[in-house]
Amino acid sequence: MISHLSLTKTDTVSPSISLQTDSNGFEFLIIEHDKLSAALTLHGGHLIHFQKTGQQPIIWLSKSAIFDKNKAIRGGVPICWPWFGPAGPELGEGLPAHGFARTSKWALDNVQESVEGVIIDLKLNSNNETLKLWPYEFELTLQITLNEQLKLELITENKSDLPLTYRSALHTYLNISAPEAIHLSGLNKQFYNSLNNKCLETGDTTLLIDQAIDSIYKKANTEIMLKDQQFQQTLTIVNTGNDSEVVWSPWVEGAAAFADMPDNGYQTMLCIESAITQGDGQQVKAGEKHSLTTLIK
Fold first, then answer.
1. Digit-coded pLDDT (tens) for 90-105
2. 78 preceded by a cis bond (ω within 30 of 0)
3. d(Cα 176, Cα 187) in Å, to the nearest integer?
4. Which of 17, 54, 56, 214 could form a disulfide with 13 if both were Cys (CB 3.0 to 4.6 A apart)?
5. Neighbours of 238 (CB within 10 A)
6. Distances (CA, A) of 183 to 119, 194, 248, 297
7. Which SUPFAM superfamilies is this protein grouped with (predicted)?
8. Taking a C-beta distance cutoff of 8 angstroms, is the pair 121, 142 a contact?
C-alpha cells in the first residue's frame, strides 16, 4: 500500500524500524518485520499501513494522499481528537474539523520489538499552540501494537486542574477488495444517519455496502465482523472505551470530490471507526486517564 512512495532512509530506530523521508522531508517510520510490514507518520501520529506477511493489507491508504505538515492524510487511521466533526460552539469559530491531533507533530516515545512484532508509543502534549484551540493541559499517548493483530489504544490523560470532556475517533480506513464482496455484521440496530439530517434510524445488524454511507451507530453489543469474499478473509473488530461506531464510505460522488482520493478509491476502502460521539462526550477528571481502543484481528 506504500510501494508508490519514494522514500530515503535517514536513521535506524531498531532492527525492524527505520526513519525515512520523502523528497519534501516528510518523515515516516517504516516497519519491516519478519511477521509484518507497517508504516506511520509522526505527523498526526498516523498509522498509514499494516500488512501481515503473505496476506492482504488491512489498512488502506489513498494513492493520492497529500503529505503536507498542515493537512490531514487521506487513509490510514487519522486521530480525531479532542472533538469529532466540527468543534462545539462553546470553543469558538474557525477551529479545524476533527480537532488538531491529526495535524500535530507527535513524538516517538518508546519502541518494543520481539519475534512476534512491535509495539510503538507516540506522545502528544499540550503546548502554547494547542492551548489556543482547547483550554486544557493534557498528555495524549497512542500505543500501536503490531503482531498477529492490530491494536490502537489512544490514552487521554488530563493534566489540568479541572475535568475535561472530549470526543474522538480512531478513523480507521480498512482495505477491501470491492464493496459488493463485503458483508458487515454485529452493528447496533440504531444509528444516526448523517445523510438524512442525522435522524435516528433503525436497521439490521448486518450491512451490505452499495451506496454512500455516513452513519453513527450506537455502540455494538458484540464483535463487528467484516467478511470479504474476494479476499477470503474475515476481520473481527473489537472496540472499547467508545460509545459508538462510525461507518463511512464516500461512494462515487464523494470520492470524485476529494482531491486526495482517486475517483475509484471508494471501491477499495471502508471506514469502521471506534468513536466517542454521543451526548456531551467523555469526561476525564483532573489527573485521570481514559482509553479509546480498536482491536482488529
1. 888 889 999 999 999 9
2. no
3. 18
4. 17
5. 17
6. 31, 21, 14, 16
7. Galactose mutarotase-like
8. yes
